[in-house]
Amino acid sequence: MSFDVLIITNAPGELSSWVKPFVSKLRETLPEARIIISLVPCPYSSGEEEKIASSIEGVFRVIDPNYSSLYAMTGKLPSDFKFQDKGIIIQLGGDQFFSVLMSWKSKFPVLIYTEKLVLWPGLVHKYLLVDQNTYANSRLKGIKADKLSVVGNLMADALKIQSSPQEIRERFGLKTDKPVISLLPGSKPFKVKYSASFMLKIADYIAQKKPEAQFIISQSPYTPLNQLVKAVSDPELISVLDGVSAKFERGINGNTLITEKGTVINIVSPEFQYESYQISDIAITLPGTNTAELAVLGIPMITMLPLNKIEQIPLEGFLGYICKIPFLGKVIKKYIINKSIKKLKFVSIPNQKLNTMVTPEIIGNIHPVEIANIAVDIIENPYKRREISMNLKKSIIQSGASKNIVEQVVNTLLNKYPDIEILENINNLLDWTRRESEENQ
User: Fold this and answer.
1) Which residues 6+ apart lie within 8 Å of 294 measured at CB?
2) 68, 98 in Cβ contact below 8 A?
3) CATH T-level assignment (fold) for domain 165-395
4) What is the pLDDT of residues 257-295, one digit of tens each?
5) Which residues of the chain does CATH 3.40.50.2000 include?
6) How confident is the model at residue 440 (pLDDT cuts 50, 70, 90)?
7) Residues 190-199: pLDDT tens digits?
8) Superfamily for domain range 3-152+400-440
């Protein structure tokens, strides 16, 4: 008898770094499960989430944000679909309140995977935590130990790279003995629109100091190519952070952007996103999941949070609606963001994990030459690069989170539905766990 595994998620980073590796392990261990992805509203969505979610192998159904909200509030689903009698909810991103409401409507137990927040403890079956620090903080808040389980970081599972750095460089037409600087404008539309041209200006400054430097810019699966090109060619978007324009060209080794000063930036297509991280001597990025993915690989990075145009930063939930009030909304937004920034000790995930500045961050009214100078200093200092790399790898628990979460799913299903027919799959899980343990010895 089949059962449902309902995955609740929202933004591009969560779909790529959390949902994909979990679904892969879930299919392998529980092939009888109907895997359903419920997308919940997110101000940072790219508009490509439903398409990407539907393309993940093994996904039975994707529920769009409108129907997810409708079901959470009223219990109504699309007319051609309904949940089965047995199932479980696993939250991999989004507001936890959606999971609580959907659990109440469906009567499914709910597991919430979280890096920080532990909310609604009386209504959640268990919280799956990324590390011991989150566990300790949750216990200090009075959450019972049997509600908590440390499973590791799913981002480490997402990084599966098959080729060597030399092979990847050759594929992109890059020299193997020259430094590579990776520009990562992110996957969320507002980030790409305003940061891409700013990053190109940084590249111009680096190229002045190190003419041999090679540049790549990563195109997220959630960023259509025309959106990236527009970000570096539309004067209105470029002017927001005083970036530079670039022309788009197609070449033998792929697409490129060329600035007015002649700096060439190779565009890395989405299917080689993680490979492009691996060949980078240093990355220039914005806060987000990129910083954790780079940390897993030990790639030195500079995380920047430009606040030159603070009113452009979107806010989630109720605050987002308040900030749209004419005239007064902008004032409220600036106040909220400034207050929030002051509370932030660090903005990159590895620095937050280790609670120290292991890799550089710059926040505020940023000039591109600041970033360029730091990047050149790191590139020219191999010992500094090595030290940063080693510390970054310590910040993220390595692979295994997917397996641990699947184990939690199995245990929860057996407790909730003692008669559920997944004995064969439990044996698969035990065999798989034993094999992985032997391989890691």
Assistant:
1) 277, 280, 283, 285, 301, 350, 392
2) yes
3) Rossmann fold (3.40.50)
4) 999 999 999 999 888 888 889 899 999 999 988 898 899
5) 3-152+400-440, 165-395
6) very low
7) 889 889 999 9
8) Glycogen Phosphorylase B; (3.40.50.2000)
